[in-house]
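Thread: Newbie trying to understand structure tokens

Hi all, I'm a second-year student working on a class project, and my supervisor (Dr. K.) asked me to get a predicted structure for one chain before our next meeting. I've only ever worked with sequences, so writing a 3D structure as a token string is new to me. If someone could post the tokens and maybe explain what I'm looking at, I'd be very grateful. Here's the chain:
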Amino acid sequence: MPKEGSILVVNAGSSSLKLSLFRDIGNELALVVRGQLDGVGTQPRLQVKDAAKATLVDRKFAAEEVRSVQQAITLTSAWLREQFPDEPLRAVGHRVVHGGTDYAQPVLIDSTVFAALEKLIPLAPLHQPHNLAAIRAVQESQPDVPQVACFDTAFHRSHPLLADLYALPYDYYERGIRRYGFHGISYEYIASILPQVAPAIAEGRVIVAHLGSGASLCALHKGKSVDSSMGFSPLDGLPMGTRPGALDPGVLLHLLMQYNLPAKDLERLLYKESGLLGLSGISNDMRALLDSKEPRAQLAVDYFVHHTAKQIGALAAVLSGIDGLVFTAGIGERSAVIRARVLQACAWLGVALDANANQRGGPRISAANSAVSAWAIPTNEELMIARHTYAKVATATG
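---
Reply by user tm_fold:
Sure, no problem. This is what the structure looks like when written as tokens:
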């Protein structure tokens, strides 16, 4: 394994592969390229930009050329080797959605770790298999390159017991039926930069709103996660693009027993057909809903704002009040309208919006006299993964 070289970060989904390449420059990791291969198996398209956001490649492929995550890894790896022939790959870092109860930190992947992560597939059936497929593909094509798994659940392992329990017989908790929380890599990044961006609240009580196609909230105290809106699975908490968020389990029993809905159909309903898409009947994209005049589109937006504000209130109660509120991820970073509406609904907490700062995108979007400050801060999960990967391989090689 080379002691110098680049760090490749991989985030594999069911039909897309995101990648970022970082180079070590004086103990700092600098982005070299960032790209995505969408439409795996249907309409594959590779788009890659450099650190200045200049397009390096925008190419479409026939469906049979990229039918799987493995083929996507092979194709993108070949492109990277062609573009950077003299730069060795030091390690690959992966976003892995579920680390279960065993993994509270990133870990070097070996056969034992991989087998343990395979056992967690039932806990994240639509995410974990694709994460592991990418790991397997790298292992097959470049077996000498170390790989590191970084978990969306790990940052939440600091929760107190009360935050992770369900009121089921206790032995279910011991079997792993508990609140795990997700989006932890994003929350960890935000916690890591608050001392620079918002030092006055960094050690205080902060709610971070990761609002995107997947959405959740995290309560931070002194930079540590103490509670989260997501629980056992990425279905819980806030309404999302195609996921319903918090749902009375009696609804699920009713669908199973009265509608005779097969488990696979129920899984598809909850992961693919609900949320903003299900409510609006139009789109899972917040931008399209905000632009639409259709009543159900507006209903979906109103529902999203209502339940986001409602769960902010719940986490504020957990923290016994808050010092700051941070918006991040796609909607949180880019939608001034949604930020404004959520903050207006949370005015009772003592937060006052600065409309002009909000339109500019922050970072501070609250008024100077606001008792609780509000911020819009871009997340950077890829950099967080690259940092963990670099640290793990550096330790392993001395």
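A couple of things are worth pointing out once you decode it. The chain has a mean pLDDT of 93. The chain has two domains: 6-151, 200-381. Feel free to ask follow-ups in this thread.
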